[in-house]
Amino acid sequence: MDAARQQIRVTVGTDPIDVAPLVSEVARADSGATVVFLGTVRDHSAAHTDITHLEYEVFAELVEPKIREIVDDAADRWPILGAVVEHRSGRVDLGQTSVAVAVSTAHREDAFAAARFIIDELKTRAPIWKKEHWPGGSEWSPGS
């Protein structure tokens, strides 16, 4: 795929993630499929049943290039037309989106596969630390 024709953006920040602009950003006339994955904060984990919020420690200057590398890897495998990845840092409350991946391609199979690859690789390769909070305590948890 011609990199100049792809719309790719990776952002890490404290602002809440608004999904509608992500979908618009990857929309193209030659795209027949857009897949969006949203990772949201739930009220439990394997270790705790009363999570109140998460806290992400992210060094954007390290994480953004790593996520871009992951998106580039996906673009080498699938004909991505557009891809946007946003990840939160700092406090993220229950129900809020902590990570969003939007991918557009000509066909749905490629869009689903590329989006899944991006989120799965992000969780294993990006240096992001997550702290779970509950009433009376908190601890760092593996994974993003």
Helix content: 25-40%
Q: Which residue ranges are poorly predicted, with pLDDT under 50 across at least 5 consecutive positions?
A: none
Give the total of beta strands. Answer: 8
Radius of gyration: 16 Å
Sheet with the most strands: spatial strand order: 1-4-6-2
Strand content: 35-45%
Quickly give the CATH architecture. Alpha-Beta Complex
Into how many domains do the coordinates divide? 1
Give the structural class.
alpha+beta
Q: Would you mind describing this structure in some detail?
A:
It is a single chain. This protein has one domain (3-135): Aldehyde Oxidoreductase, domain 3, CATH 3.90.1170.40. Helix content is 31%, strand content 38%. It is built from 3 helices and 8 strands. A 4-stranded mixed sheet has the order 1-4-6-2, with helices on both faces. The two termini are 29 Å apart.
Walk me through the topology:
Layout: E1 7-13, H1 19-26, E2 33-40, E3 53-58, H2 60-77, E4 80-88, E5 90-93, E6 97-105, H3 108-125, E7 128-134, E8 137-141
Parallel strand pairs: 1-4
Antiparallel strand pairs: 2-6, 3-5, 3-7, 4-6, 7-8
Helix pairs in contact: 2-3
